[in-house]
UniProtKB/TrEMBL annotation:
Organism this protein belongs to: Cicer arietinum (Chickpea)
Signal peptide per UniProt: none
Source superkingdom: Eukaryota
InterPro entries reported for this sequence: NTF2-like_dom_sf (IPR032710), Pathogen-related_defense (IPR053218)
Full protein name: Pathogen-related protein
């Protein structure tokens, strides 16, 4: 029997009725361990911060592992929009089609200056790229919550260890992390209608393009 996930309670609800991308519910043992060892905040049980943190983890789980919007429990599919760095919003269908990595890393830079081209990656290939680079997963935590529902504003941190190859770049074993700000617009049942994320992609991609010899991450074109 799978270990109970302390951060994604919906994993254990009506599992048999869900259409899973890989045939069954995922396990998060590795990334949960990474999270618990590396988090900078440990929020009280039931706090707003813990609630927001677990809600985002649950939404990411659904986005990565469920194939039907009707199975999602964290969002209002017909109203949902994802906005990243001020770009045009993606609907629930569009977000599910491209996947979280491609949604976060879409860029208007010329192709020759893209270390990662979201337009040429599929949902599946994007997950393979980052699963390869971060074999233990890519942990996520809430740093601060500024406002409560229905418009929740928060600061977050995302991190992992570059322990596998990324687009021809050898792993360095170093931590790669980035910080960002986000908002959640939720309904009266706390289901998400809109997500808005702001962050600097060079904090992520710069760490994956570094040679491990203290090369300045400004070599990443995202930072110019």
């Amino acid at each position: 029997m799978a270990t109970k996930d302390n951060y994604r309670s919906i994993l254990h609800e009506e599992v048999e009725n869900i259409h899973w991308r890989h045939g069954g519910p995922p396990t998060y043992d590795l990334v949960n361990k990474l999270f618990e060892e590396g988090r900078t905040k440990e929020w009280p049980e039931g706090s707003l911060e813990e609630t927001v943190q677990n809600a985002i983890k649950s939404w990411e789980m659904e986005l990565s592992h469920k194939i039907r919007l009707q199975d999602f429990k964290t969002i209002v599919p017909e109203k949902f929009k994802l906005f990243v760095n001020g770009r045009e919003g993606l609907s629930a269908e569009e977000t599910l089609s491209v996947g979280s990595y491609n949604a976060l890393l879409k860029s208007s830079l010329p192709k020759d200056y893209m270390p990662y081209n979201a337009n040429e990656e599929t949902f599946e290939s994007s997950h393979e790229v980052f699963k390869s680079a971060f074999p233990r997963g890519f942990a996520w935590e809430v740093i601060k919550v500024y406002t409560g529902p229905p418009e929740i504003a928060f600061k977050f941190r995302h991190w992992g260890f570059f322990e596998g190859p990324f687009k021809g770049h050898a792993p360095t074993g170093k931590m790669v992390q980035f910080f960002g700000l986000g908002t959640l617009k939720v309904d009266d049942t706390l289901k998400v209608e809109e997500v808005e994320i702001y962050y600097d992609p060079s904090e992520l991609l710069g760490g994956l393009l570094s040679s491990g010899d203290n090369t300045n991450v400004s070599a990443c074109p995202f930072s110019t």
